[in-house]
Amino acid sequence: MPPRRINDSYMDVDSDESDVSILDDDAGPRKSKGKGKAIDRGRDKGKSKVKEQPYAWEASYVRSWDTVQEDERGSLQGAVQDLIARGRRKRLLAPAAAIRRTIIRHLIILLDLSSSMMDRDMRPTRFDLTLQYTREFITEWFDQNPLGQIGIVGMRSGIGERIGEMSGNPQEVLKSISERHKLEPNGEPSLQNAIEMARSSMSHLPTHSSREIIAIFGSLTTCDPGNIHDTLDECVKDRIRISMVALAAEMKICREICDKTGGQFSVALNEGHFKDILFELIPPPAQRAVPRASGPGINPAADLMVMGFPTRLPVTSPPALCVCHSELKSEGFLCPRCSAKICDVPTDCDICGLMIVSSPHLARSYHHLFPVKPYQPVMTMEGVAYPASACHGCAVPFREIATPAGSLATDGMSPLGRYRCPECSNDFCGDCDVFVHDVVHCCPGCGK
Predict the structure, then answer these.
(1) In this predicted model, what pLDDT tens digit does every residue of 280-322 receive, in sequence order?
(2) Digit-coded pLDDT (tens) for 111-143
(3) What share of the chain is helix, strand, coil (3-state, %, to 5)?
(4) Do 375 and 419 form a contact (C-beta atoms < 8 A)?
(5) Would you place residue 69 in the very low, low, confident or very high pLDDT band (cuts 50, 70, 90)?
(6) Cβ-contact 232, 224 below 8 angstroms
(7) CA 240-276-373 angle, 5° bins
(8) Domains of the chain and any CATH numbers
């Protein structure tokens, strides 16, 4: 089609580029027909639409640099206090009554080692981040559950692969996942094979200990040799609790496995959320009610189990073979029943089967059963005859002028920086409050 002359300019109505360039160069409005005006009008609408309404993923994604805000002085102290307030508020909403929990835990961690773990939606990759968080999880898990044991099972190439035997020594568990080249992802995962391998590893455990499986699953498929629902029924029959952390999306079978076994299912949104939901599985779960025979001489609320406290051998003792590694060692522990030499505690004696623990490990396991009551924030000093001038824990003086509480008062923050124990009525600062509930697990004022 020949070009048409418009005000001493030529415009080809079949060329989109010439239409747009002419209309863009002209600042004034034109009453011309053709594609140029339609394209220009469509562009203006598109720009306004982008400005008014963001993308769906952009609206739902929470950016970390937006959650941390500076105050008017350019300090991040307000953001830090807000994070502490959320944790304190969560502690205040927790049930105050004592919950029956299992302190002797046996856990199998299922690691997805399929090719989907090499995706880079979590930096540096899902695989590297999973290994890093798994190491931190194992260290913290043994710190809070010293009487427990952990085993590692991998899922790759359609089979379940035993990576680490179940052990109560955190160094042995960490050593099994320390060499990255041996855990290189490959193929497709098999959830059924991994669960069957974990179930067979816990078939010999006593009834007073918990049987738990935590699966970190990054794939959207599972390559199973049979019906996974049969495996699920066996896990329910054996009272195995399965929890899952999905890195990709929610799968119906994963949700069904967690719901039927009483576990937790979560989908990680980002790196920080992945760590949070993984570390929420560290405290021991509430024990399920077990039907028992009733009678005049039976106590349905208590179970008795045999434990032994070993004798510690000094470094200067003569070397002897240990029963766990068959190596000559000087230091170690002696079983109180059969006098066999053992390297570390807590463990089960390989000779007589006695569970050997030390008194500090046993005492540290009880803080889950009897947690420290949450300290109440002190809002005002009215009615207090002789208020404490310093923290009862660290002796740091309290501030005399109250800060504006604002919205933090509803989150459990005190404008005076004082938090009072409901048992001994001693005042503690915010740092001591967090330290007592998260690390010490014992109030220094009343000893409870």
Answers:
(1) 999 888 776 555 444 444 444 556 778 899 999 998 989 999 9
(2) 999 999 999 988 899 999 999 999 999 999 998
(3) 35, 15, 50
(4) yes
(5) low
(6) no
(7) 85
(8) 4-55 (no CATH), 99-279 (3.40.50.410), 308-365 (no CATH), 376-440 (3.30.40)
